[in-house]
Amino acid sequence: MAFLQDPTLIVEWLRQLLLGWGLSPALTSLALYVLGALALATGPLLWVIFLIWFERKAVARIQDRLGPNRVGKYGLLQPFADVLKLLTKEDIIPAKADKFLYWMAPILSLAGVLLLWPAVPLGKGIGGNVNVAVLYLVAVGTLSTFAILVAGWSANNKYALLGAFRTVAQMISYEVPIVLALLVPVLLARSMNLQAIVAAQDVWFVVAAPLPALIFFVASIAEVGRTPFDLLEAESEIIAGFHIEYSGMKFAMFFAGEFLHAFTVGVLGAVLFFGGWRGPGAEAYPILGLFYLWLKAFLLYFVIVWVRGTFPRVRIDHLLDFTWKFLTPLALVVLMATAVLDKALVRAGAWPRALGLLVVNAVIWLLAQRWLRKVEKRLEPPMVAQPGQYPVARYTPPEPQAAEGD
Amino acid sequence: MIPLSWYLVVAALLFGIGVYGVLARKNAVAILIGLELMFNAVLVNVLAFWRYLQPGETAGLVFAVVIFAVAAAEVAVGLALFIAVYRKFGSSDVDDINLLKW
Amino acid sequence: MVTTFVFLLTAVVMLVAALIAVLKDNLVHAAMGLVVTLFGTAVLFVLMEAYFLAVAQVVIYVGAIAILIVFSIMLTRRVGAAWGAQTNPTWPFALLVAGLLTVLVTRMVRAWAPDQVLPAAAAVPADITARLGAALVDPNGYVVPFEVASVLLLAALIGAVYVAWGGRKAEKETHK
């Protein structure tokens, strides 16, 4: 059972095995790389099948429904039935679609999520050890944006294109607060390497940086395009958005990509702010670290599902206002404050440093809330449907009340 | 290790393709695409020289970073101009923009 | 061996994609060609062990510049409209100039031919990214170019917003 303490032994064993079969060392390395890539790509994709079941069940319970319960015990086999249905569906390509790009988009979409995984440290000494990992995460994220733009364009459908434009505006805008929030763990750990970031979390970064964690989380939900930020597929406005023309397995790839992306956000949040694979005994038994990481990621994923089941969708201008006028300035202020205070407390121990930063975060949050209250008073009154008038794009605010004196 | 001249040849070809794009294209955005190709050729050149002549220094990398910034600024302004012109003329062909005033 | 193979493959893919970027009449396809070329450049950076710049290349070029270009191509066309010829009637001259330039530069490089002299370049230090970061804010290093670049970006940002906005009148017209 030595591999429990050092999982790299498995790789060593495989290498010896392949060499024993008479393969050349170069070929063996290649085979191991391919095997690793296959494992890293297949594992998450299989996990998605369970995620779909879990999400449907959880959202159903939140909405006081039963959720899938016919196929198998607790409806556990429902996703398999779904996959079978999607596989046997007719695969329609619109007559005037841009065929090549139409085919590429779902692949790009899924690849953009799967490519995030190689950078993630799964345990002590296992998984990603990329030097510029945090920047890499941002870089790979752009692939999904591209996939959506390409999908919306190639289908040659007005609604698909509108959905794609909305989505890209949203994703590009929310990338700014994400990057700013990502910089805080980098600052605290003094490294962009995710292994180093995990190693630096003697105190979880969520203690020292609760606001960046929150910003990262909220902006990531928007980046994935989930309720309450799922404007890309607002059924009531633009039908299904960018994937309206997709059916069958191509649609399934978008679908799986979205679910996996949501879980990956959980994984990244766990790695960056919740100590990654760290936990009792994880140093000695790296496999245990994998379990801890999975547990933390799953809890974060549950919060995403919870949010999805609870909040209504926001309006597009509110959505963009929220990131540009609130999240981004907030992230900037927190980043500056963290940088200054971290430098000032550089000699203090881990806990005093974390607590000092926590206090600063709390102060900034209180100020931000006070500012929000102030703005709220100036905001437009809630939308009220007037008789004989559509309450949609334009509405007249009710008559001003008695003058308060400017 | 790959010889330096290979990188230089690839960069030269890329630059040539970019020049062709800038000179032969009608559409303003297509001209920008050609420009981007030229920028990339320059980047490859700069980094190749850094890698083969002074890998211990940071000068080459700083140069590349500055080129990134310039390219980003250039595209932002270029596309803004393009949108403004499109709004005025309803066309994005540079041939149609033939008035000195309007 | 493997590096050579990767280099050649990347170079071929890159150049073909660059040709697509300048030759295709369908501008969305041309932009996709540009994206592939940009990725190819990033791969070349990895081969040159400039990892930070490789990732920065993807973030800046693919994530921002290419998306902006694709966006503005899509915004200024009707869906499904025919593209028409996208080349000037004077394209043979363009070909001549570009071809001459390429041939001359290539010949110059071959004549200089440092490939026999230079293949054994020194190793890149492991902390080169950290040193780059320090050099960018070091008064004795490159803080001035760095700050100038940031001012340039700010100016470009404001200028782009001003030019594309077109004033309140244009805004009212677009919202009609």
What does this structure look like?
The complex is a heterotrimer of chains A (406), B (102) and C (176). With 406 residues, chain A is mainly α. Chain A has helices spanning 8-20, 25-62, 78-88, 99-114, 133-154, 158-189, 194-199, 205-208, 210-224, 235-238, 248-273, 286-310, 316-344, 350-378; strands at 121-123, 126-127. Chain A has one domain (89-376). Chain B has one domain: Orthogonal Bundle (Helix Hairpins). Chain B is elongated and about 55 Å long. Chain C folds into two domains: 1-78, NADH-ubiquinone/plastoquinone oxidoreductase chain 6, subunit NuoJ (Four Helix Bundle (Hemerythrin (Met), subunit A), Up-down Bundle); 126-176. Chain C is built from seven helices and no strands. Chain C is globular. The interface between B and C is large, with 70 and 92 residues.
What is the end-to-end distance of chain A? 76 Å
How much beta of chain C, percentage-wise?
under 5%
Largest sheet of chain A: 2 strands, antiparallel
Please state the CA-atom Rg of chain A, rounded to the nearest Å: 24 Å
- Taken from the alpha-carbon principal axes, the silhouette of chain C is globular
CATH class of the largest domain in chain C: Mainly Alpha
The CATH homologous superfamily of the largest domain in chain C is named NADH-ubiquinone/plastoquinone oxidoreductase chain 6, subunit NuoJ
The computed structural class of chain A is mainly alpha
Quaternary organization: heterotrimer
